[in-house]
Predict the 3D structure of the following.
Amino acid sequence: MMDRTLMGGRRSFARRAVGAQSAMWRLDGVMLVAVAALCVIGTLLVWSSTRTWAPGSTGLVKKHLLNVVIGTLLCSAVTVVDHRAIRAYAPLAFLLSLAGLGLVITPLGATINGSHSWILLGGGFAVQPSEFAKLGLLLIIAMLLAQPGEGTDRPRGLDVGFALFAAVLTMGLVMLQPDLGTTLVLAVITAAGLVIAGVRKRWIILLTLIAGAGVFCVFAFQMLEPYQVARFTAFLDPRVDPRGVGYNSTQSLIAIGSGQLFGKGLFDGGQTTGRFVPEQHTDFIFTVAGEEFGFLGSLTVVLLLGVVLVRGLRIARLCDDRFGTLVAGTIVCWLAFQTFVNIGMTIGIMPITGLPLPFVSYGGTATFANLISIGLLQSIRIREQTFN
Amino acid sequence: MIRMRTRLVVLQVIVMAVLAVLSLRLWQVQVVRGQELVTRATETRTRSVIVPAVRGQILDSSGRPLVRNQTSLVVSIDRTGLIRMPEQGVPVLRKLGEVLGEPVKQLQKRITPCGPGVSKPCWTGSPYQPIPVEERADTREALQILERQEEFPGVSAEVQSVRQYPGGKAGAQMLGYLQPVTAAELEKREGLKAAFSGVDLVGRDGLEYIYDDELRGKAGLRRVQVDRMGKAIGVEEQVAPISGDTLVTSIDARVQALAEEALQHAMKNAPKADGAAAVVLEPKTGRVLALASAPGYDPAVWAGGISDRGYQRLLSDSTGKPLVSRALNGMFAPGSTFKVSSVTSMLRAGYPLNGTYDCPGAVMVGDRAFHNFHGIGLGSMNLHTALVKSCDTIFYSAGYAQWLKDGGLNPKKTPKEVFANTAKAFGFGKPTGIDLPGESAGRIPDRAWKKNMWAQTSGNSCRRAKTGYPEVTDKSRAEFLKRLANENCLEGFLLRAGDSANFSIGQGDVLVTPLQLARAYAALVSDGKLRSPRIGWATIRPDGALVRRIDVPVVGELPLSKKERLYIKDALSDVPSDGTAAGAFAGFPMNKVRIGGKTGTAEVWGKEDTSWFASFAPTNDPHFVVVVMVSQGGMGASTAAPAAREIYEGIFGFGEHKKPALPGGRPVSKLPKIAADGTVADGPVADGTVTEGTVAGKTGTRTTVADSTGEGGTGKGTTGEGVTEAGG
């Protein structure tokens, strides 16, 4: 493994920042533009979907803007930090995220929308530690699997064991909330880490089988909450109960479909104005894009997310240290999974799961976590030894 | 690192595939299925609200309202919302019951949709529409509900228009009533479904039923944009309702009131009387001027859904079944009033008009003696006197003779049955076809009827002939019944001699309705043409334009020449002055208006006699036919005739009446002019009767309110009083 130091550590920060060989010029600008565009679109959609709550209601959109600003600051801060330093802090980050999840279980935790996954900070602000847990788990898995075994490029069995232990621990705490969506994201992060790190295929197949058996047991022994089973049945056939559990999927499909090719225009979506789709500013925000911006607009959202993902994969590919590649790859898998499940559920190809759309949905902690992950990607990017 | 890079490439492929799947699905949903989902979105986003049309008024011949609309505060319950509440909304109903002063149980019954095992007062309309539970809430009640809406979820108070009856009980059975339309009725009315909503009412009886299509108007439609909670956030489309047409009737509100009052007095004076009817026709046109039935009821009980007790009262024996119109459905033996038919039968059978006939105290019919009234013989006389003095034996003999001619108990193949056929030609035995529903046919017991009857009852009669009547305590009565049963069993299919004699004086099995008798007399004293009486005169659009005149169809002709008709009319003209009704009309200014008529006293076994008086006036040029019937009223001359006299006194302004109810003692001959603004123009001079027009409820259409006081009241009242703007 090559060990590089970022150019001329002795020069002042200001000179380094603007210098010809400055890291700033090595940021992935395309990705940043796409993320910025998504944030702007998200803000407009949050505005459109919350504007009818009360006459002249702008409270929520202001809060969302504040979240985006804070997220951008966090993103910049993470970008500046060398990702190898981050590797050193990975255990700390993981433990902190575990502590956060533990706090939720204590009386400090609060229930919002049936999910006991919040810690109220007062002043109308609340954090959702499970969002940070995604980052924490992602970092600890990358750290553990980054070190290959002797004479091989596969991670050591012990490290894989530790990684799986960390994953099970985190997922167990999240399941207690219960938050099925985040649990699935954590599973995807774990799986992505293992796959990218080069764990043997038979191991992966075995783990997949175990996970499959686990899922089977969950259904067989009825460990799911009734509403979760209902959501799944409703996904298979929304006509089962169009006023009840099938309501969300039916209404979101109607909202998106009625946007047709060009959409009804911002603030002009009748379904949005009538608030027929529940959770329209958070999990179902894509329906607003679908109705008001039409196929062209919603395709733009998909493509912008695609740009972020593809550029993220490029960073992973170009990175020449295992930790960076692992972090970048898992982040892409995480965001891709969340994108697919979120948009998929609004257009009826995935069951309804409480996952926000990255960079677009309203929600402080999720916005922070997503933008921090972008910061991580950029941090990896600017320290790559590439000259293109 | 190579292995990692390979796996990243695989990841890249997966990511691209995911993006492609999302894009393709978006294309499918938004572009391919876009139009379909736009339609579905419109369905979700909008609610169609039916805006009921204002129902047309029913006016009398001078434009006075018999039925009008009045705005009132209506309290309704959204049942679908209520049953989802804790305890199925019982606590809410309890609170509502306190405000309205109605027990919870009763409210629950009224909002339960009708169905098998669920009887009145259940809700007959659509279960998804608000159910009105109080149609005449006062402001205090409405405010209690509206101001504490959070305590009354699912309960609303709105301004709506409700039928109002200025005449109170007058003509209640004739006017009919409204009830919510049922789903079954909606199904039947192909193509008209859009005209109904669950809250819509439909005429269930009387004029409201017959002229329902015209009175109802055309409902409007308001497509409202709603949000997820069903809260209206805007109007997308609006089609204004078209108000129903006004029905002008030939009823004169004052004559109607006179008739009602006369029946009241008659019922009071005859202690055993259990029902009465009065019919006033204009003989020349066949139009109905008044149609009264006692006991009556206040049609306002129907508003807001009738209560269980209220409904039972309308149909119970203890209250005398006030829902049933005696004028249409009261079938009674007509007694001597029927002799106009019998005398015609005699003429058709060949008896001379100017012949002399013997009126003994009794005649033998078969092996039985049939007596005159009190068994008194009156000597020989002409037909004129026979009618005036109401001799029975002349008619017995004639009826019996015709029966013998037809073959008696061994009838010819085609018996002539002159008496029965003449009665049918007078319109008896079948409905008159008046513009009211559910009219009774009466009964003319000819030979065919006898046979029919026997086919239906012989089984029972033959059984009784064997078992007798052990439950009848009176021994001689039981013996008589057993003998009768035996007779009916063996030869009940035969028209017996006694039947023919009874028939000739309107007794026995002959049954007529007061309306049938009235229109027969109307034909007799006018042009001999039998008409199907009409109450409706014309329908008029709310703006005053005539839609159609309702003609009175001629349905037959009396089998009498003009000379014969005038002879009979002349004879009847002497009855109130010299004949059986002379006592009842003592002191009546016959020199001013001469009344003609015929009394009738029909025996009913085990009950008091039915009292009849069929009459017309003035005798030289009759403008009015008045028939009064009082069930269990006793003698025709003592109960029905005085009631008819009361009506005449009112019409012509005699006795205690200072002014004639009808100016000039003639029925109104011209339709009232309804001005474009809904006021009645050129209204006749009235005693301050206020004519009020339609008032719209929550329709958003401005409607005018007429307020004409008759005397120069043209256009005076276009002040728009009571105009209601659209709610919400």
